[in-house]
Amino acid sequence: MSSQSAATAAEGRPRRPRLSRRQREYGFDVSDQKFSDPRYWMGDDIASFLLLEELNPGDPGELSGAKLVLCGDLGEEDSAVLAEVADHHRIGFLPGVTAKELAQLTLQGIHDPDTVLEAKLGDAEDMSCVRFKGCVLHFEGGPTPSLTLYLGEHCFGIARGSDLIEFLNRVLRRTGGTLDVEASLPNVVCISKGRRQPVAAAPPAEGGKQ
Question: What secondary structure, in 3-state letters, does 70-123 show?
Fold first, then answer.
């Protein structure tokens, strides 16, 4: 291809915005409409994050500031959803395959009150404290769908409404999922025993360091 042809082809493609160092390190908040264009968050290793609402916030500390972070490269094999609290303290993750499955199932039943799902988070390699192992993401469909991060009965935070739907759609796109096919259920569990009542209780007693 001649240099003139290459230049013409380049002009026809959307140009990816220049990202700051902070944007590359921390990613983009899904609630920030200035960065809703997929050119910002569909690049390899560019993260999107969803801040979770604390139901009974206390003083800022190690259990504050929970969020879900969509990161990694494009495709289900190279992407993941991380659960973090405080300042990048990772307490679990969903591999891309499970994240895609969860996004498919939740979006298919987003407004159905009978859709109640849970996905267990894997243990992040850099977890420093064993008391945070065993977290789950709990989804409930309905007029106001919600996704809650739990450890036992302790609620780290909850996401609802349009920001949740935007995050799930980003997960679906980044992992290569589609709503046109029926998702399998090897990793996400359908719950029929009823809905949880989030309780912002004290977390389990410290179990020591790994």
Answer: EEECCCCCCEEEEEEECCCEEEEEEEHHHHHHHHHHHHHCCCCCCCEEEEECEC
Closest CA to 147 of 187, 196, 183: 196
Rounded to whole angstroms, how far apart are CA atoms 114 and 69?
Answer: 27
Edge-first strand order for the sheet with 67-72 is 28-29, 48-51, 67-72, 79-85, 89-95
- List of E strands, 127-187: 136-140, 146-151, 154-160
Per-10-residue mean pLDDT, the chain, length 210: 43 53 65 71 73 75 80 82 83 90 91 91 70 88 93 90 92 85 64 54 44
Helix (H, G, I), strand (E, B) or coil at 35: helix
Nearest 5°: phi and psi at 105?
Answer: -70, -40
